[in-house]
Amino acid sequence: MLALLVGMAAGGMCRARTGSAAPADKVVTFRFVPGTDMFYIPWAGNGTELERLYTLIDAYRSEIAAGTLPVYVDGYCASLPTPKENLNTAFIRANRVKSALIVHKGLKEADFITGNYASAYGELKDVVVVTLRIPAKKEPERPQPVREEPKREEPPVTPQPRTEPASQPAQEPVAEAASEPSPSLRASAPEKPYCLALRTNLLYDAFLLPTLGVEWRVSNSVGVKLDGSLSWWGDEHGKVQKIWLINPEVRWYLLRNKRFYAGLSGNYGKYNVYKYMVGGLFSDDTGYEGTLWNAGLAVGYQLYLSRSFSVDFNLGLGYMRSEYDSFRIIDGTRVYKDRNRTKNFWGPTQAGISLMWTIGGKKR
After folding, report:
1. Which of 171, 175, 136 is CA-nearest to residue 19?
2. Domain of 249?
3. pTM as predicted
């Protein structure tokens, strides 16, 4: 062990004599509040660190612009439940620091080398570290003493014509490529949790109005849904429930996890009900036949059960209009009570508890 330490010390002394030096890194650390991605400048000394970074940028602006001194921006996050959430948050935080340098110091995206990590930086779990790897100046080499060789008399030699060697082009020093973080550690833009979802409204199914639908997740924040409902029970001389209904909807998924949504929704369909499951909700002795349509706002929340299944809770509010005839059945004959009636209504237009089977995308 002692020999090893002596050897290491001797190696360090030799390197010092030859004048080589390691890069003098300038490191600036910004702290973030756990669970958020906002860059709070007055918090935890970030303001002082930012001013120090601005001073370094001003001092080495020409080297940064020439591409010889890249600005390394590394995001670290280890305070969230999953590696993906940590990596996405580190990505957003690093971009916020870069944005401050681009806006206030005029840097460009090409001036940065970015890395994002779902891990802690030492003992710090929520930081962005900015590093300038400034090469240290080399010390001039000390001249070595010249040893004089003893003069020897050589026999005379007949001079021969010399052929000059072909001049070799001077080789340019090859700069080592700056090491970049592994692509697997880089955070990408948030992906949509699924591409397609097949769905059925369990609430409508319970009223013997089978419903099937499909949703296309256009992006992480936008979805387009279309449901269709159909029941064809009974006949015109007794209990009857004949309904068809279509329900298109455009949704905007909100908040961090994109589970809550709001959207625009509508319904259009025709109905003929009398003393069946739906008809029994209105009157025991009156039937209704007509058309309806509505439009309004929809809100909802998706509860994730597994990688492939979710439950969608949905409620619609808006305007509804129905044009209908009312009737009774007397001795097996339909007797109309009112013809060409209309009803306008403001309030709930739809409700749903839907089971979803999600296909494709990035499961969360």
Report:
1. 136
2. 196-359
3. 0.47
